[in-house]
């Protein structure tokens, strides 16, 4: 029986992450101050220092997380790499000619124009432990460090997840897009409450056994979820070298640093179209993230909804980048199953990745580089089109 | 009609009849998420064979477009290499070839790639080997050779990838190759990064190693690459195809202060470890480490264990013995193997021996190895980088100051010295700290080499 099946059948203990909170801020402040003091010192000196007691005692595990997060924030600076390499070439080359190490070193030092002691000092000055601690790229407050540590703790737990269940509201489309971009499978269905979406996330190979290959992808979900209006995440995680299952539960308000805010649009094409259409069709609103549409027992997330302000008439609009004829056919079939009567699909003429001809049997707008808003308006509101007709490339296919 | 497609390292079987015998194949499962049957990539070959046997019509859309046959110049093979290739061919081009270090496994792989003439991916454990393999392949293959790892990401019909690069990218690339070659395949089979092999759909597979894995790991490697089709040890080739060698064990006493500190550390560790074993007789070392990390006394025991190992890694007696051996063999090319980088740098400083470690970048390592070959460097010291694969043709003296990974590491290290040369007789010194754990380790290491050792000293 696969682990994911087992997880459905057994009761699983709940994992309670030991988040860093305000109570940890004093020792985090002390750690940041101490690190600042060691900027420019060798990494090995810093390693020795953090092995000793800090000015304010820190919980061992949390301190370990904070140190790893700090190390990721700033890379050590190599000092004198070229000089060290040259010193090694001269010293070890000389040692091959002169069997007595002390004499060889003196000869090499003379060739390098340095004293034997300085020569020995710079021999391995570029090794990781000899590199210098770099300053943090930006001033970091204890609360920022605490949030970053919490994100690292959650990402580490999620990287061990068999599967993840998410119930979210608002900005869900961006999460779904992120999940798919990361190569994960995502099954979206309507949630129990209004406007809620329920997502089941797992990696394709997770069907067979627990694997860490999706660790990074799964770990990146929570910072992305932090941009939803609300969310609740449940993850079944494999712990203790595969001997224990634990359930991690996260929700809105948990102290985790959010990801970088996503751009409002997925691509320049979408951004240009939204601006141009809003400018051209003053009676129409361009809704960036429309409500998902139910298709049998799943949900799909159209790119745009065009909504007439007075009549409330609604059209869904999809913009397709790379495509094959088969892909477009499947996509249209799926959208038909969703019973979307008013649908426009915009297809990039230049980004076809197959030879099969496209059988145009829906409202399709072909475009190059940018979607012509007049072509779209000609479909949704022909009467409103008082400007010149659409470009020859764009055309309305016969309605089904 | 059944369609086979590749999906992120797996084979999707769309439209499989419910009564198809394929559903009984190991690894084929119903995936409710996509409403299709799914199997791990490495089952592709078995699935196709089963479909053909059952006479089930299917459309194979798994292989990525553009996988055209490739042209090779077949390399010349020694008789045993040719035998290995024939055996692999006879096993339907899926199997393990076990040949000693220095016997030309890479050449066997090139011959296999030439014989198949299909796009091939070669997995190697380290970045250093990545470039060594690429150079060897370029001798026999005129086309561009791709590289995945060490900051490079070029996929060609013939591509060399590090284990790490393959692990990260095989979900995307697993259907682009018809042959999978795995160097040092003994690294697989224990779960760590096995996905690199599991997610690849290549139907032809060749595993290469000098030391085949054992037990459960071997069974899993056989599942992933095929059975052992050819196995030769150092003793089978020494004298004719490998240099002869002599093994010398130098048992050295710790100073009284070192002995006292060693005994104290071992006592702390033993106390915790014996208590653990008393209640968990079947537990593994990893279980002990996991348990010990949770308590202050456990962490003290682990620290004591590490301290005892550091004491034996490079005590005073080993310092003196090493300096003496370097003096004695000042005209020879010497490889020094240590347990850790710290010892390697200590030896480098004291004896002015060039270190070849993971911290030294590839360009400088290559320059050092080239200088060593030309005789411009008399010795190299390394903890792990030189353990496997790196081509060091002319070393004739090996000094093993310390090691951590037991018998397999030892066989690999000795193999570094066995590249054949006229009238060559290599010599391997093992420095062993008396009355420490190293004595038992040394016995185990010699047992691993026993069939090959011509004379014990």
Write structural notes for this entry.
- The complex is a heterodimer of chains A (400) and B (457).
- Chain A is α+β, with helices and mostly antiparallel strands and 400 residues long.
- Chain A has 14 helices and 13 strands.
- In chain A, the strands form 3 sheets. Chain A has a 6-stranded mixed β-sheet, sandwiched between helices.
- Chain A is elongated.
- Chain A starts with a helix and ends in a 20-residue tail after the last helix.
- Mean pLDDT of chain A is 83; it is low at 387-392 and 394-400.
- Helix content of chain B is 41%, strand content 20%.
- In chain B, the strands form 3 sheets. In chain B, strands 9-8-10-7-11-12-6-13 form an 8-stranded mixed β-sheet, sandwiched between helices. Chain B has a 6-stranded parallel β-sheet with strand order 14-19-18-15-17-16, sandwiched between helices.
- Classes of the chains: A alpha+beta (400), B alpha/beta (457).
- The interface between A and B is large, with 33 and 39 residues.
Largest sheet data of chain B: 8 strands, mixed
Strand order of the largest sheet of chain A: 1-6-5-2-4-3
Q: Tell me how many strands of chain B there are.
A: 19
Query: Structural class, from secondary structure content of chain A?
Result: alpha+beta
Poorly predicted tracts of residues of chain A: 387-392, 394-400
The helix fraction of chain A, in percent, is 25-40%
Report the mean per-residue pLDDT of chain B as an integer: 88
Shape by Cα distribution of chain B: globular
């Amino acid at each position: 029986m696969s682990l994911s099946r087992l997880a459905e059948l057994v009761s699983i203990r709940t994992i309670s992450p030991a988040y860093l909170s305000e109570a940890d801020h004093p020792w985090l402040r002390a750690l940041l101050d101490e690190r600042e003091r060691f900027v420019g010192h060798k990494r090995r000196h810093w390693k020795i220092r953090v092995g000793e007691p800090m000015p304010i005692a820190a919980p061992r595990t949390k301190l370990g997380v904070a140190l790893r997060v700090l190390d990721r924030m700033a890379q050590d600076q190599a000092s004198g790499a070229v000089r060290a390499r040259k010193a090694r070439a001269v010293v070890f080359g000389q040692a091959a000619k002169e069997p007595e190490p002390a004499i060889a070193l003196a000869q090499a030092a003379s060739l390098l124009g340095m004293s034997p002691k300085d020569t020995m000092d710079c021999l391995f000055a570029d090794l990781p432990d000899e590199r210098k601690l770099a300053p943090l790229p930006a001033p970091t407050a204890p609360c920022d460090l605490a949030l970053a540590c919490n994100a690292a703790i959650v990402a580490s737990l999620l990287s061990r997840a068999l599967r993840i269940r998410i119930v979210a509201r608002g900005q869900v489309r961006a999460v779904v897009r992120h999940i798919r971009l990361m190569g994960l499978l995502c099954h979206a269905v309507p949630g129990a409450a209004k406007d809620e979406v329920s997502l089941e996330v797992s990696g394709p190979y997770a069907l067979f056994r627990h694997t860490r290959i999706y660790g990074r992808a799964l770990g990146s979900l929570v910072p992305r979820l932090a941009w939803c209006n609300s969310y609740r995440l449940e993850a079944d995680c494999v712990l203790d070298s595969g001997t224990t299952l634990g359930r991690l539960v996260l929700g809105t308000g948990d102290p985790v640093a959010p990801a970088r805010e996503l751009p409002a649009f997925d691509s320049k094409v979408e951004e240009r179209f939204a601006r141009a259409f809003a400018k051209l069709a003053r009676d129409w609103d361009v809704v960036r993230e429309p409500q998902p549409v139910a298709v049998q027992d799943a949900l799909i997330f159209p790119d745009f909804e065009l909504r007439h302000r007075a009549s409330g008439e609604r059209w869904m609009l999809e913009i397709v980048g790379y495509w094959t004829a088969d892909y477009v056919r499947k996509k249209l079939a799926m959208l038909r199953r969703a019973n979307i009567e008013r649908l426009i699909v915009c297809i990039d003429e230049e980004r076809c990745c197959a030879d099969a001809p496209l059988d145009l049997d829906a409202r399709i707008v072909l475009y190059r580089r940018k979607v012509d808003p007049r072509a779209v308006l000609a479909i949704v509101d022909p009467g409103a089109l008082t400007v010149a007709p659409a470009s020859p490339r764009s055309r309305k296919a016969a309605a089904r | 009609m059944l369609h086979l497609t590749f999906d992120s390292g797996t084979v999707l079987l769309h439209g499989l009849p419910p009564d198809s015998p394929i559903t009984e194949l190991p690894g084929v499962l119903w995936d409710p998420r996509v409403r299709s049957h799914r199997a791990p990539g490495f089952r592709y070959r078995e699935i196709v064979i089963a479909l053909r046997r059952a006479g089930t019509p299917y459309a194979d859309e798994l292989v990525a477009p553009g996988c055209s046959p490739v042209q090779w110049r077949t390399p010349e093979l020694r008789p045993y290499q040719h035998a290995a290739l024939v055996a692999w061919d006879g096993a339907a081009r899926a199997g393990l070839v076990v040949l000693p270090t220095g016997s030309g496994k890479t050449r066997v792989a090139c011959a296999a790639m030439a014989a198949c003439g299909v796009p091939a991916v070669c997995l190697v454990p380290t970045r250093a080997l990545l470039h060594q393999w690429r150079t060897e392949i370029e001798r026999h293959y005129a086309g561009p050779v791709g590289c995945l790892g060490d900051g490079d990401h070029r996929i060609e019909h013939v591509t060399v990838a590090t284990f790490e690069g393959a692990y990260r990218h095989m979900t995307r690339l697993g259907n682009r190759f018809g042959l999978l070659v795995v160097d040092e395949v003994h690294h697989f089979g224990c779960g760590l990064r096995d996905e690199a092999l599991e997610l690849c759909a290549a139907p032809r597979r060749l595993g290469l190693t000098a030391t085949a894995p054992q037990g459960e790991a071997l069974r899993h490697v056989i599942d992933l690459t095929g059975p052992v089709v050819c196995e030769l040890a150092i003793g089978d080739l020494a004298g004719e195809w490998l240099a002869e060698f002599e093994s010398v064990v130098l048992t050295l006493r710790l100073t009284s202060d070192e002995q006292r500190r060693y005994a104290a550390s071992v006592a702390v560790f033993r106390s915790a470890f014996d208590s653990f074993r008393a209640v968990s007789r079947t537990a593994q070392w990893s279980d002990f480490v996991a348990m010990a990390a949770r308590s202050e006394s456990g962490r003290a025991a682990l620290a004591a264990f590490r301290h005892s190992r550091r004491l034996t890694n490079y005590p005073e007696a080993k310092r003196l013995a090493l300096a003496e051996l370097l003096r004695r063999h000042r005209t020879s090319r010497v490889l020094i193997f240590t347990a850790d980088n710290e010892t390697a740098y200590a030896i480098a400083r004291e004896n002015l021996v060039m270190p070849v470690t993971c911290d030294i970048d590839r360009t400088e390592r290559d320059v050092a190895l080239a200088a060593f070959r030309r005789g411009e460097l008399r010795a190299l010291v390394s903890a792990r980088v030189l353990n496997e694969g790196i081509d060091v043709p002319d070393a004739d003296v090996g000094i093993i100051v310390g090691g951590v990974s037991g018998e397999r590491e030892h066989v690999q290290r000795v193999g570094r010295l066995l590249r054949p040369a006229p009238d060559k007789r290599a010599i391997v010194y093992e420095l062993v700290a008396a009355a420490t754990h190293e004595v038992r380790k040394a016995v185990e290491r010699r047992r691993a080499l026993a069939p090959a050792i011509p004379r014990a000293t």
